[in-house]
Every structure is written in structure tokens, then in C-alpha cells.
Amino acid sequence: MDNSAAISIPEKAKTENHVGRVLGKAALYLILLVGAVIFIFPFFWMISNSLMTLGETITRQLLPKVPQWINYKEAWDQANFSKYFLNSVLVTLGTLTGLLFTSILAGYAFGRIDFKGKNLLFGIFLATMMIPESVTLIPNYLLIRGNIIPLPGGTWINTYWALTVPFMANAFSIFLLRQFFAQIPDELWDAARIDGCDHLRFLVQIVMPISKAPIMTVLLFGFTASWNAFQWPLLVTTRDTWRPLMVGLYGFVQEAGPYTHWLMAGAVITIIPILIVYFLTQKQFTQGIATTGLKG
Amino acid sequence: MTENTAPYPSHRKTLKLIKLQEQLTGYLFILPALIIILIFGIFPIGYSIYMSLFNWQVTKGPFIGDKNYLLIFGSWWNLLVLVAGLGLMLLGSMVWGKAFQTLSHGRRLAHIAGALVLILGGAIFVTGWGMMFRTGNKDFLNSLIVTVYYALGTVPAEIILGLVLAYILYQDIVGKEVFRMIYFLPYITPSISTAVVFQIIFSSRETSLANRLIGLFGIDPLKWRFEPKPVLKLLGFKVNGLAGGPSLALLTIIIFGIWSFVGYNTVIFLSGLGNIPKEIYEAAEIDGGSKWDRFWYITIPMISPVTFYLTLIGFIGTFKAFNHIYVMRTPSAQNSVITTSLLVFDRFYKANQYGVATAQAIVLFAIILGLTLAQNKIMGERVFYG
């Protein structure tokens, strides 16, 4: 194909075309680079400011003269971050364990088992994605406070349960896993059944090991949702006992207002775990998005 | 013969048993998720409706029926006029759209009729809105305007930028993974933390980064997050208040919204582009279609289901948005940045008016539902499913 094109196109036109192509490519890279700079810049600004002295943040240098690593220690101590950090880690771990348990089972059932009312139930699950938090927030608050039904322990305000249990299932994760599980060839299940496998064993021993990508995607989205949660924790934690990092950071912003260097150090601290998890799951995550695909 | 038929019923029985077992397994598997979603996702909707019928302030008060809703609309008659106007507008746009598809002689007539119905519907809608504004809750109606500004300011920009970036990344690009990773970063990081940086970049100080940047173009320092005046007014137009378009404070939040959401659209578009069969592009190339033609006549229609999905998710998302707006708002920006989700939260959290807040939340939910259905109707017909 290349040969025939070379014959039919005169030499001069070909080089012009070539130059045009290189220029076009350069323009594309330029757009991508400008985009990347815009997306990255706030992070750069966050880090560079977190290492400045207070004076430097006011005169708006681009970079600190001498990196002030002490800012991190000062922010950490002042904002009680060690407490909040631990809280966030425990809340996130608990939520994710529950979320994986419920959504893998439900995703499997919706994808691979026939039962009455399946489509109706799945439709209802999907519809919950449209519901704004504003609607569910107030009844859920009363529910957690123990005003609607009696809860074990009276009220769940300021408890671990308030921060984890409501988020241990969501339609998005179930949908994502269902899409993937449904694509697994039936022959695999037939073979397993002949060997005496039931659904649970098939799920644990065969389906889960080949579904790393979508499970990682659910994990990443679940992790960020739980780690970044703000509105609900703000509502159900009135004391430091279980207050998570984001609410802590918000409080710190109110208090430390003008101390930009501490604020930025605090912001960096809250972002680091997300970055680590993101870089670790990056590959499976992109695969997960592509394979479970949001086709049509 | 009789001996042979004997095993059949029992065999059928085991088959039935297996089917029953299958059903039970299915229910058992969805049970944990079902319990949580029922309690924390579905039950609250019913309970919200219930709460909205009471004078509920921290604790349940007397039953007051539709009073909380009347506080919002002024009267049901106002709402009826408004909805009738909306319905007519929808009808008009549908007639108009249909006229483009059919090739019969009634086309021009249908066009005119569609346009007339559209204008009539618009007029009735505006009338209804005016009536509601006079007797209803101004804070709530203002918050709806702010929400619409926010949605219109973010969603289209996110869609266009996301598609452009995805389309470029889909070409033969070195370092594609790195770019994609960077673009997705703002979406994945906590909005509370990144909003704090935006607060500092867009602070009202003369030396703030945003002010120094516009200073390069000879523009005087602006107040950004603290500026309730409409952007158009700052540009020299004679407009005032919310009717004059989004305020500079809201624009700052819109910029943040676009920045944090474009990467998500890029990633989803990119996977959508991967699903378009390569043969179509090759066929077009052989037919002599230019790069631009290929983008316009192949990519855009083939990607339309993804665009539709992202538009829907985007609009629902802006109506639900809370965290970053809550953190980035300032008292001096007044009501120009209070979206409906924030208003509902304030009614509930600060003013303790649970009944009023739930009624407002229910109305917000109804609007989201209506928007979703309308989008399904209008855009769904134009989406091309391969």
C-alpha cells in the first residue's frame, strides 16, 4: 500500500505532506503538554508552597529558597492529623471490605444467575445512582442518630459504624462487576459444574482470579470515595473520636486561614495515600475501564 | 415401559430442585447489597417525602400537608403554569426536530408550528417563573438559577475538552499513558484538598497567582472567590444580580469543576474511541475523507452513546455537587454561589428546618428525574447506536 502511494504522489507533494504531518503532530503534542501543565500546576503549587516560609508564600515565589520540611511536622502536630489519618485509614479499610463483599456477590448474581425479578431489582439498583445525597442525607442522619429504628448501642453518631456501614454497597460497583462477570464464557461454568463446583466456589476460585482489573477499579473508586468523603462525616462526627482526615483538613483551613505554608502541607498529607493507591492500581484500573467498557 | 417412566418424575424433581436452588443462591448473593441499598438508598426517599409533610424542626412537629411545598412555589397554580410551559417547549422542540427528519410537504408547516409552540411554551414558562418568584421562596429559586449556571458552565466545556484530549491521545502518541494518568489526577484527588489550592491561586490578594496572571494582560486585580458581581458586569455590560449571568465567584468554582472533571471524561471517551471499529476509518481513508471529515462524520456519531452517557452523568453530578462548592464559597460572594444542594444543607444543618429542607430536596430530586427523562427523550433519539 505504501509503495503504490509513493508512485502516484509526486515527490514534491510528498515532502510537503510530510512537513505538514510533522507540524500537525507537533501541534497535537503542544495541546497535550499545555493540558498536562494546567492539570499538574495546582499540585506543583501545593507542594512548592508547602515547603516555603510564610514570607515566601506571601511574596509568591515560584519555588522556596530552602525547602522547609519542618512545615509538615508543624502542620501534622497542629491539626491533630495523626488521629485523623488513622481514622481515615480504618474507615476506608472497613468500607472497602464491606463494599467488595457485597458488590462481588451481587455483581455475580446479576451477571450469571437466573432468578425471578432480577431485571427489576437491577433496574432499581441502577436508579439509586440518580438520587442526590440531599434527599437521602436527612433521613439517614435521623436513622444513624437512632431516631427512626432502634440501633444496637442507641445512637451511631460519633461511631465507626456511621462512617462505614452506609457505604458498604453501591450500585456503581455492582454494575461495573456485573458487566465483566457477564462476559465470562459459559463453557467455563459448565466445566466447573461438571467437576462439582457450586456458584460460590466457582466465584472464588475461578471468577475472582480472572477479574482482577474490574475488582481493582472498584477498589480504586471505593478508596477515593471513602477517603475523600466530606459531607457525611462532617454531619455524623461531632468529636475527634472518629473524625476523618477531610473533615480535619476543613477545620484546619478555618483555623489556620492565612498560614498558607501549613495549609498546603496539610493538603499534601491528605493527598499522598490517594496518589500511592492510584499509581499502584493505575494499570488494572485503565484496563478495568476499558474492558467493563461503558459501551452504549 | 412402566419401569422406564418411573425415574422420570424424580429426575424432573431434581431438576426443579436445582432451579430452586439456583434462585435461592441468586437472592442470597444479592441480599447483603440489597439490605444496605434498601436502608440507606431507597427508604430515605420515602421517609423524606413523609418528613416534608410535617413542621419538622429537629423533632417531628404537627402535620402541615403541602405547606412546605407552598413555601417553595407560592401556590400550586404557579407550578402548573411553569410545568405546562416546559411541556409545550419540549413538544415544540420535538415537532421541530421531527420536521428535519421527514421529507414530506408538511415540513415547512411543521417547522413553523414547532417554532410557534416553542415560543408559546417559553413565554408561559417565563410567566410561571415570574409568578413563582413573586410569591415563592426566592432563595430556593435563586439557588436553581445558580445550579443551572454551574451546570451549563461546566458540562459542555468538560465534554468538549474531554473529547478533544481523548481524540488526540487516541492518535499515535508517545507517552500516552503518562498524559492519561496526569489528566485523571484531579478527578481522583480529594476535592477538599485541591479546592484549598484553588482558594490560594484565586485569592483576592493583589499578589495572588490569578491576579498576577491577568496583570500580564494589563487587567486590574480582581476579587475572584469574593466577587458576587456578574462576570458580564465586570466586562462592562450593564447587568445586575443573578439575572446578569454567573458571578465571578461562581466562575472560579466553575473553573475548578472543569479542571477536576475533564480527566474523567477523557478516560471514558478514550475507552469509547477504542471500541470504534478500525475498518470504518480505513474505508473512509480509501474514499478520500480528510482527517477532519473522519472526525466529524465517523468519530462524533460513533462516539455519541458515550457523549450521551457523560452528559447525563455530568448534569446529574452538577446538581448533586457539594463538597468543593461548600469549601470554596465565601460569605462575601453572597447567594451567587449557593447551589440548591448547598441551600438544602444549610436549611438542615444550620437552620435545623428539617421539613423545609426535605421538601426542597424532593423538588431537587424531581428536577433531576425530569432532566434525565427529557435528556433521554431529546438526545436519546439522536444518539447513534452502532
Can you describe this structure?
- The complex is a heterodimer of chains A (about 300) and B (about 375).
- Chain A has about 300 residues and is mostly helical.
- Chain A has helices at about 1-10, 10-50, 55-60, 70-80, 80-110, 120-125, 135-145, 160-165, 170-185, 185-195, 200-210, 210-230, 230-235, 245-255, 260-290.
- The model of chain A is unreliable at about 1-10 (pLDDT under 50).
- Chain B has about 375 residues and is mainly alpha-helical.
- Chain B has two domains: about 70-135; about 140-380, Orthogonal Bundle (MetI-like fold).
- Chain B is globular, with a radius of gyration of 27 Å.
- The relative contact order of chain B is 0.11.
- The interface between A and B is large, with 89 and 92 residues.
Show the helix and strand layout:
The complex is a heterodimer of chains A (296) and B (386).
Chain A: H1 2-8, H2 11-50, H3 54-59, H4 70-78, H5 81-112, H6 118-127, H7 133-145, H8 160-164, H9 171-183, H10 186-194, H11 199-210, H12 212-228, H13 231-236, H14 245-256, H15 260-291
Helix pairs in contact in A: 2-15, 4-15, 5-9, 5-12, 5-14, 9-12, 12-15, 14-15
Chain B: H1 2-5, H2 7-52, H3 67-73, H4 76-101, H5 107-135, H6 138-170, H7 176-188, H8 191-201, H9 209-215, H10 231-234, H11 248-274, H12 278-286, H13 291-320, H14 323-328, H15 340-349, H16 354-378
Helix pairs in contact in B: 2-16, 3-16, 4-5, 6-11, 6-13, 6-15, 7-11, 11-13, 13-16, 15-16
